[in-house]
Design brief:
Helices cover 72% and strands 1% of the residues. It contains 28 helices and two strands.
């Protein structure tokens, strides 16, 4: 017990010490981590809440509330994907060429909440007011829907891509993907619990046939509950917008101006982009089972609290996967983890195929199977952005430009072109089995069970296919770290802190497998600066350089720590002055050394990295 208390005290003290200043070797302080992850609860909550409007699955949510048929849903799917293809170049151009005092992505987290809020109100009120003419109401809804899709895509992209530039340290980013996503995903859990429960309690109504139409599928929910929840979620999301920094590894004076078609041409040479695109396309139907829980709760269980509890319990399946993913990545690598996740998701779908052949299948057992499939698939919440980081960094390594917006939107064009066809699958299956026959058709097991069974079969096949491209993924963790080190060297060269010939030599060493070449160079310069300032003797300097060149990049740090301790014991009052003078003199010497100039390791790990924008 005392050991546990001691560890807790140590953890609390560690957080206090590094609340505003990141630990050595890190870029993100605990304060900024909280801004990203806790503020992200609001941003992620917004995307989940608006997903009840922008996710077009026949028979649920806004589609059901506005009496949109399966045929109209199919029309909407086609228009949505065509519009995605047309809007992609604009989003690409906007994100890749944005440069403000708030950075490249955070401006969208600041300004987009206003139009998103207004559109969410309009999409609920205006089509309903025009319900006397169903055609006009549907056309109006489509216009508002497409605009909302455009802005929520930009808002979501800004938050997701912020993680790619919040730290130059890949292991730190992966930990934030795991622990950070576990925290901010609470926004989705909260929304998925509170929103359906409140909606079903307040707005559930009787329909012909005596069945209860759950409030989540009625228009009053979207007129009143959505706006109130959006205000609270947007307010929390502003903590992320104003409490984080962007730290891309680029030179100080770099200004990106990437043309749309030039950017697409450069992206087309990135093989990891194509492998990611192939995985996305082949796996485009692997999450078709996601809407099962809503159908089971709305049309089979039919109680006000069912969807809130069911979705919350199923969402719990994400938690262990997200927390454990960074550790699994370090043990097995991203490649093996993604392959295993897709194959196991396909295997987990098989029991549903057998189970739904029976006319008396229990809806609660169906939810159990959905939970297992969600658990198997959940690890990709962390691995997907981690793999995207490798795609973005490789693109910068190849072309010299960071093109997160261009790459993501080129991907959107490809996947949307495919989705014009795949998006028709669910409403087509629903229509084929008579879902449009009447308002209460989906309440009948003989209608809903075949739909769920066929969608599950498609999910299993798509999941298995999505694993195939990963067998060709050869960007190992070691190789990616080498890419990052080369980008640091190039940034130092462009900043004038490394002579071109030195930078070229270091880059060749790194690409030959010497991943610590730049670190050794940096540490060696610190030793020489200390020697030039008379802080160490020739003998000590020679010994430290020998250790560093042998691979012990921590040698000078250990010596400095021991020196500081001894100075503190000898003269406590002068400790700070000695340390400050040593660091300052070392930095000044580095700045004056024209033959071997580099950035200090402390700067690399801090939020004030001069390589950062």
């Amino acid at each position: 017990m005392s050991s546990l208390v001691s560890k807790l005290k140590h953890a609390v003290n560690h957080i206090k010490t590094y609340w505003s200043t990141p630990p050595e070797g890190k870029a993100v302080s605990y304060k900024e981590f909280c801004a990203y992850s806790v503020g992200g609860i609001g941003i992620f909550g917004v995307t989940v809440l608006l997903g009840y409007i922008t996710t077009i699955q026949y028979g649920v949510n806004i589609v059901e509330a506005l009496d949109i048929t399966s045929r109209e849903t199919m029309i909407l799917v086609v228009l949505m994907n065509v519009f995605t293809i047309l809007r992609a170049p604009l989003i690409s151009w906007l994100t890749d060429n944005t440069k403000t005092k708030y950075g490249k992505f955070r401006p969208y987290l600041i300004w987009l909440p206003i139009p998103l809020f207004l559109l969410s109100i309009g999409i609920a009120w205006i089509p309903d007011l025009l319900s006397g003419s169903h055609s006009i109401a549907f056309i109006t809804f489509t216009i508002f829907f497409l605009l909302l899709q455009f802005l929520i895509a930009l808002y979501s992209l800004a938050f997701n891509t912020l993680l790619q530039v919040i730290s130059p340290n890949q292991s730190e980013k992966e930990m934030m993907m795991g622990l950070g996503s576990t925290i901010y995903s609470l926004g989705g859990s909260i929304v998925n619990f509170v929103f359906p429960m409140v909606a079903n309690v307040i707005f559930t109504q009787k329909i012909m046939g005596g069945e209860d139409l759950m409030g989540i599928n009625t228009i009053g929910t979207y007129k009143w509950i959505v706006p109130i929840m959006l205000i609270a979620l947007f307010a929390l999301g502003y903590w992320t917008a104003f409490g984080t920094k962007e730290r891309a590894i680029i030179s100080k004076d770099y200004t990106q101006r990437v043309g749309i078609f030039k950017g697409f041409a450069a992206t087309a040479k990135n093989k990891y982009f194509w492998l990611t695109a192939a995985r996305s396309i082949l796996g485009s139907l692997r999450t078709l089972f996601n809407f099962f829980a809503a159908w089971v709760c709305s049309y089979l269980i039919k109680t006000a609290f069912a969807q809130s509890f069911a979705v919350s319990i199923i969402a719990f399946a994400f938690t262990p996967a997200m927390i454990g993913a960074p550790f699994l990545i370090r043990k097995f690598g991203k490649k093996k983890l993604v392959i295993a996740s897709n194959i196991l998701t396909a295997v987990a779908a098989l029991p549903i195929l057998l189970f739904l052949n029976t006319a008396s299948a229990s809806p609660y057992l169906i939810l159990v199977f959905i939970f297992v499939m969600t658990f198997m698939n959940a690890v990709q919440i962390v691995t997907d952005p981690a793999l995207n980081t490798q795609v973005y960094d490789w693109q910068q390594f190849q072309s010299g430009d960071r093109m997160e917006g261009n790459i993501s939107q080129f991907m959107a064009i490809l996947t949307s072109a495919v989705a014009i066809g795949t998006g028709l699958v669910q409403p087509a299956i629903a229509g084929a089995f008579g879902a449009d026959a009447s308002k209460d058709a989906l309440f009948k097991p003989e209608v809903i069970f075949p739909i769920l069974m066929w969608c599950t079969l498609i999910t299993a096949v798509s999941s298995a296919l999505a694993a195939i491209p990963m067998f060709f993924w050869d960007m190992t963790e070691k190789r990616h770290n080498e890419v990052i080190e080369v980008l640091k060297v190039r940034a130092a060269r462009d900043n004038g802190e490394l002579p071109p010939e030195t930078a070229s030599e270091l880059e060749n060493k790194i690409l030959a497998g010497d991943g610590n070449a730049f670190m050794r160079h940096t540490e060696t310069l610190k030793v020489r600066a200390a020697l030039a300032n008379g802080e160490i003797t020739d003998e000590i300097a020679a010994g430290l350089e020998e250790q560093i060149l042998a691979g012990d990049t921590e040698a000078f740090k250990r010596y400095s720590a021991e020196y500081a301790t001894q100075a503190s014991e000898a003269s406590p009052k002068n400790t700070d002055a000695v340390t400050e003078n040593t660091d300052r003199d070392a930095q000044e010497t580095n700045g004056d050394n024209n033959d071997n100039t580099s950035i200090t390791d402390e700067e690399i790990g801090s939020g004030d990295d001069p390589y950062n924008t």
